[in-house]
Every structure is written in C-alpha cells, then in structure tokens.
Amino acid sequence: MEKRLIKILFLSGLFISIFLNPISLKGQSYNDDNNRFLDNLNLNVSAGPTLYFGDIHSKSPFQEDWKMGFGFGLRKQFSPIFAVGLQFLSTKIHGTVINWPNGDVANLKFDSDLTEFNLHTTFNFSNAFFGFNPDRTLKVYALAGFGIANWMSTLRNTTDESVIEQYGVSPDGGNAWTPSTVFPVGLGVNITLTPNIGLNLESVYHIVNSDNLDAYTAGNGANDPFLFTSLGLSFKLSGSNRNFSSSSSASNFEKDLEKQRKYQQRVIDKEQKRQEREEADQARKKQIDSNKRGWGRKSVSANLPKVAEYDPQYSFRDQKNTTNKDVNSNIKEEDPPPSEIITIDEGKHFITGVKNSNLLAGNANQAIIVDNVNSNTLSTEVIQIPQTGIFYTVQIMASQKPATNIPDLRLKYFISKQIFVSAQNGVYRYSAGYFELYDDAVAYSKQLKGNGLTDAFVAIYQNGNRILYRPK
Predict the structure, then answer these.
(1) Rounded to whole angstroms, how far apart are CA atoms 385 and 167?
(2) 10 Å Cβ neighbour count for 228?
(3) Which residues face 157 on adjacent strands?
C-alpha cells in the first residue's frame, strides 16, 4: 500500500508539472491577434482494440483477449509543441489465464465494461526538434495525463463458466460506483489529410490505480494496466496552426518567420527558375537568328570600361577568359551598331551580349521621391533613384514587374541600408545603399553576398541614369 501511495504521488506531481508547462508557455508562443477559444481546437473520434496486461491475461496476445474500444474527445493546441485535451473512453476488456507462471492450473477469465474520462497533454516531437512548420504533413507526439475510470468486471471459470467473483456490480446486477484514478501514457502520430482534417494513430498505456480491474486481487499491490491502440480522425473546428509564432525574442521570431516562408519560397523559386529557363531559351533562339542574319559580336578592346552587371534585359554568352586581353580578338563578324553592344567584367570573366529591344518602358509609381538623398537616408519605403548627382549602390534584384517582396528580402538577407528603385526600358532595378566611394559599395556587396544574396553587385548612377563606367 505504501509503494502504491508513493507511486500515485509521484505520477500526480509529474503530470501536474506537465500541464502547467504549456499554460505558462502560451503567452510566449501563441499569437494572440484575433485569438478565439475555438482557434486550434480539434474534435477527435477514434476506435481500436484493447489488450489487458494485469493478473488475468494470456501470454500470447493472439488469443481472444483483444476487445474493441471507442474514444471521443477535444484537444486544444496552446503552442506548436504543447496541447491539452479531454477524452471519454468506453471499452470492453477481456483476459484469460490457463496456468500461473509457476505452472499451477488457473483456468480463469474475466470480462469488463470500462468507462474512463481523462485530462491529458501532448508534446509534439516534430515541432520541438525540427522547428515549427505549419505545412508539415506528419507529426509525432507523446501523450500523458490522468483521469477517473469506473468498471464492471466478472471473473469466471473457463471450464464451466461459473462466476467466481464480481467487482463494480451491485447486488441487483447493476453498475456500482467504484471509481479509481488512471494514468494514460503513450505515443501518437498525426497525418494531415486536409487543412482541417487529420488522421491519428495512437497507442496509449492506461495504468489503472487498482488491482481489481479483473475482479482478481493478487495481493502484491500491483496495478492493472491495459493498452488501447486506436485509429481516428481529428477535425479542426476553427483557426489554423499558422496563428502560432515564437515571440519570446526578436531573433526567435525572425527564425520562425523564415521557416514558415521556406516552403512558399521554394514554390516561388521553382516557378521563377522555370520562367528564367524559358526566357533564356527564347533569348538564345533570338541570338542564333540574329547571327544568321549577320549580327555578330563586335571585337572588344581591353581598355573599354569594366562594370559588374547582371540584367535580364540582355542576352549573354560567357567567354571563359580570366585575363584582361581582348576576349573576342579572334572573332571577325559583321559589327552591330555600337549602341547595341555592352561589355561587362564580373571579376572572373568578361561577358558580352546584344541588347534586346523588345521591352517596353516602365515607371516607378510604386516608389516615393525624396529630395536631398545621401548616405544617411534610411526609410522602410522604397525610394526612387536620385535624379541628380553621381553615387554607387549595390543592385539586389531586377524584374520586369514591380517587386512586392522587398520586406521579405530585407528580413531574409539582413539588408539594413536604404532600398532604391530605377525603372528604365521596362526593367525595375532594385538596389541597396547610397555610397560616395566605390570601395564602400564593394564592401557592402560582399557583406550581402555573405548573407546569401550571391547576385549582388555594384551599380553606378549619374543623374538618375545607370552608367557602365566608373567616373574619373
């Protein structure tokens, strides 16, 4: 009896601490904007077999000791890791023993009708160890709790079906109220079928704080446990897991925000790469057609201005030459107009190409105009390229349409400088920073490349127009 009391006190303290943990974390890990009680509340229904592991049980689980049980409950997700739930369980339990472990004949079996009501918490291993991802399909979790169980059990002789003992049965054959505490612990897997429906597979070990579940008292103070393995469905009543965020600190918020965007970003990147491949194929076809009509590439002298450039407005062909010699000295073809030729030095090799003229002029209406822009200018808005003066900046992207993901780029690549936009020839060029010295612009471009923006390069603007040479 003393051992059982110590075990009850220990398990009670453990489960109380588990339940207090998710409640205390709620303010740190849940976004309370438009928070309602029904948000992230799930309705669960389940069914499955039970297997008894007490005194009267078969050594082989493949006999008739399997019985069916049914469960119904509600579970509220308070954070990406912790949830609290209520469950009602109704099941039949059966056990048979022919011989005791010492070899003596037993010839006993029992049947029980059990109802249980428990309060439990779940711990999501997937979100805890791999980070919160609202688009994750498979989630593994642990379950632990405590509750109240009541049952009616009848112990019989297997040879003549005579009744040996009953527990929880009133003299008139009805149900006698004989409740006992129960401690469910187990593991589960949730598979997302739709945004509001999930498939649950759980295997929960119910430790009944009694030795009378099988109407047989062994006298050793042992508990009578049973295993309930169920397959069920969970229905999200309202809200979404996307309400969750980690707001314990600014850095954690940024990390969780980027994790949530990774999936969407991968889809966007895949679509952009497909479009880029199509555009590159079309550009190559046009270049081949142009060459057939006599439009060749002009010989380039080594003293032409060298400016780093990457622009979807041009079609380029790499010339793998790391020297400063004339990369096209051996090519003798018909010369296109000089205004249509551009030569670029990206530090590793020269690139030459013929300018495409099929882009329409755009505008920068989405940007604001600020007077007297200098290196100290800093705003969360996108500013139009200054129309006076000459300065250096670091180009971060170019698009044929106005970009809408500038705040995401700031967060993803830690862009702390002012962002400018220039709309010329149907291309929107976005750049960061206002630098009066070329070396300062180069240093900042290296910083952005270290942050993951590998396409960043230095651009020069004079009186609002981009130029392809460094002023003397």
Answers:
(1) 86
(2) 25
(3) 108
> If 0-12 CB within 10 Å is exposed, 13-18 middle and 19+ buried, where does residue 217 land?
middle
d(CA 284, CA 277): 10
d(CA 407, CA 449): 18
Rounded to the nearest 5°, which phi and psi values hold at 370?
Answer: -125, 130
CATH 2.40.160.20 fits 2-248, yes or no: yes
Give dist(CA 175, CA 197) in Å, integer: 37
* Distance, CA of 168 to CA of 154 (rounded, Å): 9
pTM recorded for the entire structure: 0.47
Check residue 322 and give its pLDDT.
Answer: 39
- Reading the block at residue 132, the tokens are 């919160």
Highest mean predicted confidence (pLDDT) among 201-205, 348-352, 356-360: 201-205
Q: Is 379 helix (H, G, I), strand (E, B) or coil?
A: coil
Sheet holding 419-424, edge to edge: 383-384, 419-424, 427-435, 390-399, 457-462, 465-467
Quote the CA–CA distance of 456 and 448 in Å, as a whole number.
Answer: 7
Whose tokens are 């009616």? That residue is 152
Fold (topology level) of 359-472: Alpha-Beta Plaits (3.30.70)
Output the pLDDT for position 20.
47
Residue-wise pLDDT tens digits, 286-319: 888 777 665 444 443 344 333 444 444 443 334 3
Q: Which residues, at least 6 apart from 193, have a Cβ–Cβ distance to it below 8 Å? A: 199
CA distance 449 to 383: 22
Please state the length of the chain.
472
Q: How confident is the model at residue 253 (pLDDT cuts 50, 70, 90)?
A: low
The partner residues of 236 in beta bridges, in order of sequence, read 42
User: In this structure, what token pair is assigned to residue 169?
Assistant: 């049965």
Count how many Cα atoms sit within 13 Å of the Cα of residue 125 in the half-sphere of its side chain. Answer: 11
Domain extents in the chain? 2-248, 359-472
Does residue 107 come out as left (phi exceeding 0), alpha (psi in the -120 to 50 range) or beta? left
Give Cα separations from 19 to 47, 85, 143, 204 (angstroms): 26, 10, 11, 18
